[in-house]
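FAQ: What does a ligand-bound record look like?

Like this one, built around S-adenosylmethionine:
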Amino acid sequence: MRAPFVPPKGQLLKWIGSKQRFAAEICQTFPRDVRRYWEPFIGSASVCATFAPTNAVASDVLAPLVDIWRTLHDDLDQVSGWYAERWERLHTGDKVSNYYAMRAAYNASRGPADLLFLVRSCYGGVVRFARDGSMNTPCGIHRPIPPEEFRKRAQRWRERLQGVQFVHSDFEAMIDAAQHGDLVYCDPPYVDSQTALYGAQGFSLQRLFGAIDRARSRGVRVALSIDGSKRSGKKVCAVPTPPGLFETEREITVGRSMLRRFQMGGQTLEHEVVADRLLLTWKHLP
Ligand SMILES: C[S@@+](CC[C@H](N)C(=O)[O-])C[C@H]1O[C@@H](n2cnc3c(N)ncnc32)[C@H](O)[C@@H]1O
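The answer part, i.e. the structure of the complex:
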């Protein structure tokens, strides 16, 4: 029996679609004999940090996000300093106007240090981007975690990610680089609701299915998280997948949708249940 996977305690980055709560369940389906692990939609890195691979490449199309991970990997003091300096600035004078000044700074220069602080201090931890890539979430009402707590978390996450190389790239080139014996885990933007939120113009599900198919024929195993069903009133969306591409399907119930909660101005929708499907290109027996 395989030892259960445990995610690092406390999320480091808040991110829409984070798999933090389900990362252990997802990793449990991964094979043991992985040559190299690839995660081309890294986001908040919850699955990667839970799997803690010794030989891995993680990437994302959002350059400042990749810079955060690279800096965490290489220099704990720098990333902790970025956070501490902005935390002090937020709490010196008027919090709300300080937040908007930092958001404006991010939107002007797209720097990783500002993004790091915004993801922890924005409203509901729901980081949204407009089509031009500018970040547009209002100021959060919570108190962001203190710098000492941030540093402890950063240390924990960093230990899990030492075997990972972080690359700024569109997903397709990364999947195409995977070789026989490798494992690729894909967690793309939810087709139904998320594409615009990451400013991710370049994402297409058909392009992803094409890359997965090519990888599979090279002997690469691919796992894909994708919307299972999303019910709100009468609406149910299920994404069709090409026949024969996947051999195993699992349903993972992820609870109420944070995105909907945000759009409803903080109200909770009791009937909104979101289920993710985890699709594997290999046969996995529970
Ligand atoms: C659902 S999130 C991943 C969440 C991640 N599993 C986690 O636990 O936080 C999807 C990610 O895909 C990235 N993305 C969107 N389009 C992309 C593309 N064309 N190539 C690579 N990454 C892309 C987004 O920036 C976002 O970080």
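Follow-up question: can I read anything off the structure? Yes, for example: The pocket of S-adenosylmethionine is lined by residues 15, 17-19, 40-41, 43-44, 46-47, 60-62, 170-171, 187-189, 198, 200, 202-203 (CB under 6 Å).
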